[in-house]
Amino acid sequence: MNVRLGSVIVGLSLVATVVVNGIGLETGVAQDKPKAKKAQKPQYDFEKESIPGASIDEPVLKEFSAAKAAAYIEKGNKLWWKKRKCIACHTSGVYGVMRPSLSTYLGKPDPALRMNLVKDLAKMKKMKIEALRKGIRPTQVAYLAGGLAEWDKHVTGKLSLETDEALRLMLSLQSDNGAFNNIGCWPPFESSAYHGTTVAAMALEAAPGWLAGLKDSDLMARVAKTHNYLKTTKPPHDYGRLLLLWTSTRVPGLVDAKKRQALIDMVVKHQQPDGGWSIRTFATPETWGDGSRAAKLKAEPEFKNPPSDGHQTGLVLLVLREAGIASKDQRIQRGVKWLKKNQRQSGRWWTRSLNTDGFHYITFSGSCYPLLALGMCGELPDKVRVSAAP
Length: 390
What we know:
By secondary structure, this protein is mostly helical. The chain has 2 domains: 1-30, no CATH class; 59-388, Glycosyltransferase, CATH 1.50.10. The chain has 15 helices and 5 strands. The radius of gyration is 25 Å and the shape is globular.
């Protein structure tokens, strides 16, 4: 018997052949050469500075690090402003309204935060009102006003001229029904007027003494319309109901005691067996904004069993704490345990984007919310050494 070994390359496949008595026999299964893994783009970058892309495969930290979490949100916001120079609800907007509240733990924010907000306000004031009322602009201005108001509340303790100007500009963009318009295609931040209106309502409450000193009848009527919209408009989903609960902790009389308890019960029912919460259980794919992300959401590998995530777990915990649920409550403690066990090496918490599997910017809010929630649960040191973070 004559045996000869050979090989044939077909496309990218290598097929081994054994020739036995003049007859060629293929052995094994043709194997493709492994495809080179596409390099992941940085999540945030500017010139030589960057933050690696967010991924479900990012390893979990062996031990919770407040310093790493703080370093992540500080650097992410800084790089966004340097590269984009604008308010973006998912990053600089969230940072603006959240960072002043973290002053107890992280120290006072960099003055550059307020400087960036003031510069953006100056640009907005130069735009025509008709342009500012379109698309996402009303919600952007609400985040802008909210950031300035929170700075006044937590950093200086007194109302500034810029905050007054921002709130007046914000109210001038209000729709006839009392809402602050948004677009419908980028959930959760840029997908509903309901969301934008909760941001606006909390901005009005945060500004020290602004509402108490208001004399302008037109502005007073607009404030009342803001509250009435939230009182009378049905939230688009349970995520909207969570935002209503959060807003009600800031706005007196927005909901009565019975409705507030019903909202708390709804939120608690979403808690997962592992102690966390998943943003994906708070709305069906079709009810996020205009429903344009439904196909993407239904195609996700975890669609039928969505995992807990940093965004929703952090947001729920801080809202429940503001709603008066004790930090020792077992439901709160289970959520705290989840956060401390699921932080990633970059310092952030993983949350898959509801929009595209690209930059996963939701991991930014999904790191701001957990930090403040942990602080409100007594799980952060008095001062986190941000500069010591790797």
